[in-house]
Every structure is written in structure tokens, then in C-alpha cells.
Write a structure and sequence with these properties.
The chain has 2 domains: 55-131 and 246-287, Periplasmic binding protein-like II (D-Maltodextrin-Binding Protein, domain 2); 136-243, Periplasmic binding protein-like II (D-Maltodextrin-Binding Protein, domain 2, 3-Layer(aba) Sandwich). The protein contains 9 helices and 14 strands. It has helices spanning 2-28, 38-41, 65-76, 92-99, 110-120, 161-173, 223-227, 259-267, 271-279; strands spanning 55-61, 81-87, 104-109, 124-126, 132-134, 136-139, 154-158, 178-179, 191-193, 199-203, 217-221, 237-238, 247-252, 285-287. A 5-stranded mixed β-sheet has the order 2-1-3-13-4, with helices on both faces. A 5-stranded mixed β-sheet has the order 10-7-11-6-12. A two-stranded antiparallel ribbon has the order 5-14. It is globular.
């Protein structure tokens, strides 16, 4: 009797194991008719730059916060939410854009961007239409005219390649120096003839106005004088190439034809921004569309 009882239990256990094994096989099998995931079917979004964006990440310099605020309503009226990142210098906005943490930045002119691309092997692109021309001029709190600047004077220049070249070209146009014509983007070390024996110093453009008390004259975009709480009027001379240095939006090359980028570049050309340039920037930034 006992032997018969044990056989019955053993048979029950074996039957349970068999059914469990069948269950696992069914659960793990595939008929090949199940619907594919979005990734498998190829319908998942692939990040195409033509995709409609809901949020636009814009990088700006600290001195352009109010400029962006002047047009925020215009951009958001297109259906985008603006998320700004504010930087204290002129390099990091391009670094962030190239790395992909921004969709676009808005603070620089074309020659500066070209110089950055060449030095960093990036492929950032300035899109059309551009926004404004920054007035570039020479300022002094010691002298009233270019011809008053004495021999041996100290001249302050921007420390980035593009704006330093612009300052030097302005000095050459005034007949103060001669540059090496074989150098496309000259630096202060490419001054071929310095008859007035000027001494050149350099600083980041946003802080160059702080050198005004130490230097005889400084060469920079006039807007930085206003940013420093100084007057942009009364400059000794101005550059004659302002239109070449128009400021606009920069994007990565894959977004250069994106509809969202073009829409934003166009919508900021508005009365609100023109009024901002006139009042807060004291006319140092000239709208491209006027």
C-alpha cells in the first residue's frame, strides 16, 4: 500500500514538471506575426532637423539677456517655448552649440564664427536673415581726436582674432599703422610699420572698457561701452566695414535649412527689437531690416 502511494505522488510530480515546461516554451515562442516596435518598423523619429520643435534652446551672452527678452513673445508666438542659457564670455556659447546642448546661439558675427570653426574644427553656420550691425569704434577718455593720440600711446585691442584684426584694420585706415598684407587676419604681431611706436594691449571685448582709464584709446564694438555703463557717443573714429560684421543666429550645419531656425531669424526682425536697440543700446546696434 505504501509503495503504491509513493508511485502516485511521483507520477503527479512528473506531470506538473511536464506542464510547467510546456508553459515556458509557449511564453517564449514567437509566431512572427506580432506588431513591430516603432524602432523595428522604422517609424520612430530619427531626429530630422525638419521636425517641428516645441522647445528652442538659445545661447546668449550675459549682455544680451534683455535683447532676447525684447523678442521672447515674438518667438513664443510661433508656438515655441524659449529656454535660454546665459554665458559670461564669447567662447562657451559656441562650445555648447557644437556639443549639442543648444539648438542655436545669438551673439556673434560671421567672421568671428568662421574663426571659431577654423580653430576648433567645428561646422557651425550663420543663418539668414541676420539681425543687426554692431558699431565698431575707437574710444578715449584722454584725447578728443585721432590726431591727438601721442607717440608711444597704449592702444587696447580685443583678444579674439577677428575683432583684433578689425581694430587693427581700423587703425590702418586712419593712417596710424601699416599691416603685413600677406596676413588675412592680422594680429598685433603683424604690424609691419608702427611710426608712432604704439604699445598694444589686449583683453576680452566685454571687459575691454575697464582698460579705458589705463590706455590712451581702445578699439571695440560700441555696444560694450553701453554694457559697461559708459557712453557710446564721442568716439574718435569708426570702422567702415560694419555691414560685414552683422550679428545673427548660429546653428549646427545639419540645422542650417531647418524651418524653425528660419522662422526665428525672421520673426525677431520686429519693431520691438528696433526700439530696444534705439533705447537700451543707444543706437550702437543697427537693425539689418531698416
Amino acid at each position: 500500500m505504501k509503495k503504491k502511494y509513493l508511485c502516485t505522488i511521483l507520477a503527479a510530480v512528473m506531470t506538473g514538471i511536464l506542464f510547467a515546461g510546456c508553459g515556458k516554451s509557449d511564453a517564449g515562442s514567437s509566431t512572427g506575426n506580432e506588431p513591430k516596435s516603432e524602432t523595428e518598423s522604422g517609424t520612430k523619429d530619427d531626429g530630422d532637423s525638419t521636425e517641428k520643435k516645441d522647445v528652442i534652446r538659445i545661447g546668449i551672452r550675459a549682455d544680451m539677456v534683455n535683447q532676447l527678452e525684447a523678442v521672447r513673445a515674438k518667438i513664443e508666438g510661433l508656438g515655441y517655448k524659449v529656454e535660454e542659457s546665459v554665458f559670461d564670455d564669447s567662447v562657451q556659447p559656441d562650445v555648447a552649440l557644437a556639443e549639442g546642448s543648444l539648438d542655436m546661439n545669438w551673439y556673434q558675427h560671421g567672421p568671428y564664427l568662421e574663426s571659431y570653426n577654423a580653430e576648433n574644427e567645428t561646422d557651425l553656420v550663420m543663418i539668414e536673415p541676420k539681425t543687426f550691425y554692431p558699431l565698431f569704434a575707437m574710444y578715449s577718455d584722454k584725447w578728443d581726436a585721432v590726431e591727438d593720440i601721442p607717440d608711444g600711446a597704449t592702444i587696447g585691442l580685443c583678444n579674439d582674432a577677428t575683432n583684433q584684426a578689425r581694430g587693427l584694420n581700423m587703425l590702418q585706415a586712419q593712417g596710424l599703422i601699416k599691416l603685413d598684407e600677406s596676413v588675412e587676419v592680422p594680429t598685433m604681431y603683424d604690424v609691419k610699420d608702427n611710426p608712432h611706436k604704439f604699445e598694444f594691449i589686449e583683453a576680452e571685448m566685454s571687459v575691454l572698457p575697464q582698460s579705458l582709464g589705463d590706455a590712451d584709446a581702445i578699439c571695440l564694438a560700441a555696444g560694450h561701452m553701453v554694457n559697461a555703463g559708459l557712453s557710446a557717443e564721442g568716439y574718435l573714429c569708426q570702422s567702415d566695414d560694419n555691414d560685414v560684421y552683422a550679428v545673427g543666429f548660429a546653428v549646427r550645419s545639419e540645422d542650417k535649412d531647418a524651418e524653425w531656425a528660419k522662422e526665428i531669424a525672421e520673426v525677431v526682425q520686429c519693431d520691438e527689437l528696433a526700439e530696444y536697440f534705439k533705447t537700451e543700446k543707444a543706437g550702437t546696434q543697427i537693425p539689418c531690416w531698416e
